[in-house]
Amino acid sequence: MSFSLLKIDHVQLAAPKGSDDRARQFYSDVLGLKEIEKPEILSKRGGVWFLIGNQQVHIDIEEPFNPAKKAHPAFVVENLNHLKAHLSKHNIEYQVDTLLPGANRIYINDPFGNRIELLEWK
């Protein structure tokens, strides 16, 4: 093959129109991701971008909106037990999943119903 896929640059999740502030509150204030500036030409559409490690999470507007119920990003977490307590403090429900060998993991939904996996490798 004369090409190579190198890494994931970003993950994009959809949100309904007018939801930028809710996205900021959840992804930045609750999950602690750093908001990054969208290119000016794209910012007119709405949506918010965040940084996690050296990858990006793009929350962009989709009309009509349908949340991703099965497809999802999976974020590696350090100290999942503290994160679970933090989520509970913010009234965010999570589902524990013990099916993946070697991982402690939970699933949450963002404010728009998109599924997110959070896992800590043992």
From TrEMBL:
Domain called VOC: residue spans: 7-121
Instruction: Please name the InterPro entries in this protein's record.
Output: Glyas_Bleomycin-R_OHBP_Dase (IPR029068), Glyas_Fos-R_dOase_dom (IPR004360), VOC_core (IPR037523)
Pfam families reported in the protein's UniProt record: Glyoxalase
The entry's protein name is VOC domain-containing protein
